Amino acid sequence: MLCAISGEAPQVPVVSPKSGSVFEKRLIEAYIAENGKDPVNGEELSTDDLIEVKSQRVVRPRPPTLTSIPSLLNVFQEEWDALALETYTLRQTLAQTRQELSTALYQNDAAVRVIARLTKERDEARDALSKVSVGATRAAGGEAMQVDSNGLPDAVLSRVESTQAALSKTRRKRAVPEGWATSDAISTYKPAQSTEPLYPGGKALSVNASGELALVGSADGVVGVFSLSQKQVVQSLQANGPVTDAIWAGDKAVVASSTGSVKVFENGNEVADFSSHAGAATALALHPTGDIVASVGADKSYVLYDLTTNSVITQIFSDASLLSVKFHPDGHLIAAGGVDGQIKIFDVKNGSPAANFALSGPVKCLFFSENGTFMAAVAESSTVVSIWDLRSASEVKALETGNQIDSISWDYTGQFLLTGGPSGLTVQQYTKSTKSWSEPLRSAVPAAAVSWGVAAQSIVALNRDGGITVLGAQ
């Protein structure tokens, strides 16, 4: 008969009616006083419930002092009893902790498996979505328009080819227009006028051909038509969500939003609303014909729209979400920058890949030089403009501006490359005769988007508070 706590023969044995175990009386009473439970099964137990067991008892002599051997043995016995009681409690706590840890590990393993399965299903759904061919979209009259992803309709193809033929013959021999800004004049540009914040969070800016009106997009879904001469907003257009880009197509305003919608406005009235993108429509570009617009989106596709019929022409999918887009000045190529750092060049006529260039990060903005030879590109949060030669498919210049670049714009002559960012704007000049670059202007005017005025005689900058600053010669 051994004690269930100490494992030794008890001097005063008692039995617990709850578990039927035998204990040393002093040990079980100490345990009950501290915990109030049976140490074996954890049921409520009091000292009154204990049943004494009749057995032959050996009476120990009472030690006279602690200096005697019997006294020291008694002290050691008491210490041993306390240690045995503590060890038993620790064993119980360890067993309980192991059980709780086992349960927690099982739950964690189950959660990890669920997350892995959901992630796989999400990736499969995204991949399937990127390969879906859009069968119809909304036009102004609400009729379903068929989407042809294999090529352009004959009428559109004819316009693209005739435009390319006309522009490619005259581009290299084109003289600088009379009255165009010179490097000396640009170097004197200072802020001539500034507005109060118009549309907070705005990052879309487009100046029309006359230099009179500017489209300003905001994060709250409103696009303002701002008169630069009157210095006031003359019209307000409503998008379906936060505006991601806005451009002029002749007298028409085309607006893209984060909801995937692309709207067309004429004289302040909405004339078309397209919803071809399955995610956000991130950028817009105007074809040299003046009546074809391209949009790119987070769904890895670019879409072409015919503004003469307010219809979707084609939708071409790539292998990554797209952030920026521009047409080649001849109109036969379209460049799209992706979140994977790749600039993908497509043939406009059939959507087939034509070339590919790589940057160090997501492609924030693109712009072709009017000479048709160079392409400028900027990676997100970068301070460098990469200049690519399309003939050799190589990077020929890396322009370090020292400031983060959020927007770029090449002038009509291909001489001046305008850059803008939160720390200011610069103008980089390319001199064809010496094939060299210089910097005629550096300004501290912050800009989320930049654009040239008429004949490069002014610079229009939009800051992140939605305010417009116009810089000109002093």
Automatic annotation (TrEMBL):
GO terms for biological process: DNA repair; mRNA splicing, via spliceosome; protein K63-linked ubiquitination. PROSITE patterns: U_BOX (PS51698), WD_REPEATS_2 (PS50082). WD repeats lie at residues 274-315, 322-356. Residues 1-70 form the U-box domain. One of its GO terms (molecular function) is ubiquitin protein ligase activity. It catalyses: S-ubiquitinyl-[E2 ubiquitin-conjugating enzyme]-L-cysteine + [acceptor protein]-L-lysine = [E2 ubiquitin-conjugating enzyme]-L-cysteine + N(6)-ubiquitinyl-[acceptor protein]-L-lysine. One of its GO terms (cellular component) is Prp19 complex. Belongs to the WD repeat PRP19 family. Gene3D superfamilies: YVTN repeat-like/Quinoprotein amine dehydrogenase (2.130.10.10), Zinc/RING finger domain, C3HC4 (zinc finger) (3.30.40.10). This is Pre-mRNA-processing factor 19. PANTHER family: PRE-MRNA-PROCESSING FACTOR 19 (PTHR43995:SF1). Coiled coil: none annotated. It is found in: Nucleus. Its EC number is 2.3.2.27. Keywords: DNA damage, DNA repair, Isomerase, mRNA processing, mRNA splicing, Nucleus, Repeat, Rotamase, Spliceosome, Transferase, Ubl conjugation pathway, WD repeat. It comes from Aspergillus oryzae. Pathway: Protein modification; protein ubiquitination.
